[in-house]
Write a structure and sequence with these properties.
Blueprint lengths: L1 E12 L4 E13 L4 E5 L6 H9 L6 E8 L3 E4 L5 H10 L1 E4 L11 H10 L5 H14 L16 H13 L5 E5 L7 H16 L3 E5 L3 H4 L5 E4 L4 E4 L1
Parallel strand pairs: 3-8, 3-9, 6-7, 7-8
Antiparallel strand pairs: 1-2, 1-4, 4-5, 9-10
Protein name: Phosphonate ABC transporter ATP-binding protein
InterPro entries: AAA+_ATPase, ABC_transporter-like_ATP-bd, ABC_transpr_LolD-like, CP_lyase_PhnL, P-loop_NTPase
GO molecular function, one term: transmembrane transporter activity
């Protein structure tokens, strides 16, 4: 499903006149339906890997080969922006710790829009969006509210609802349980387990190793650059 081949990414700090390496020579291979976990200390480059796959960052070297549904294997680092955006809308989901949304868009509209992008019928999209918001304990009183008024935990649960409701072929998870209580974590785990059972391929970063137990098929350790069994 996905091959990350020898990618490297650095960042220039202009006011210091410095260039610092974030990741170097990263190689990952994830089979269809597999869940790969990524572990490592803060600042080791875990999020940089996910953002490089999603296209938020562009590595200087290497290739990221994704087996797209219609096109087959494509190098995501060579794709035109509009083709990459289309893949994000229809095949690849991303959950971060932070919620970035268009202003004056309600929580229900955001989740519904995710399904409309997949070609879902308007009424069916709304029903599925409502079910997703209920699952992740977003109170109905907040469905017509703007997410900038939400707490950190509510924003994260909304972010997860938007990504998982689409049942993407590939889902990238960057600390999806960072600010959640235990009950909310269990709901996230249930959603992830269902997606995996239905064939979604997943790559996830977690500090909570207990949460990963029984979910991940393999784990990539940033400390030694190797993939091993959990």
């Amino acid at each position: 499903m996905l091959s990350v081949e020898n990618i490297s990414k650095s960042f220039t700090i202009h006011h210091l006149g410095q260039t610092r390496s974030a990741i170097s020579g990263i190689n990952l291979h994830v089979a269809k339906g597999e869940f790969l976990g990524i572990v490592g200390k803060s600042g080791s480059g875990k999020s940089t890997i996910l953002k490089s796959i999603y296209g938020t960052y562009k590595p200087e070297d290497g290739a990221i080969i994704y087996d797209a549904k219609d096109e087959g294997p494509v190098n995501m680092l060579e794709m035109a922006d509009h083709d990459l955006i289309r893949l994000r809308k229809t095949e690849i989901g991303y959950v971060s710790q932070f919620l970035k949304v268009m202003p004056r868009t309600t929580s229900l509209e955001l989740v519904t829009q995710s399904l409309l992008e997949m070609g879902e019928d308007a009424e069916a999209a709304r029903q599925q969006a409502e079910a997703a918001l209920r699952h992740f304990d977003i109170p109905e009183s907040l469905w017509d509210n703007y997410p900038n008024t939400f707490s950190g935990g509510e924003k994260l649960r909304l972010n997860i609802a938007r990504a998982t409701v689409k049942s993407p072929r590939l889902l990238l998870l960057d600390e999806p349980t960072a600010s959640l209580d235990n009950d909310s974590k269990l709901k996230v785990r249930d959603a992830i387990a269902k997606l995996k059972a239905d064939g979604t391929t997943l790559i996830g970063i977690f500090h909570d190793l207990e949460f990963m137990e029984g979910l991940c098929d393999r784990v990539y350790d940033m400390a030694n650059g190797k993939v091993g069994r959990m």
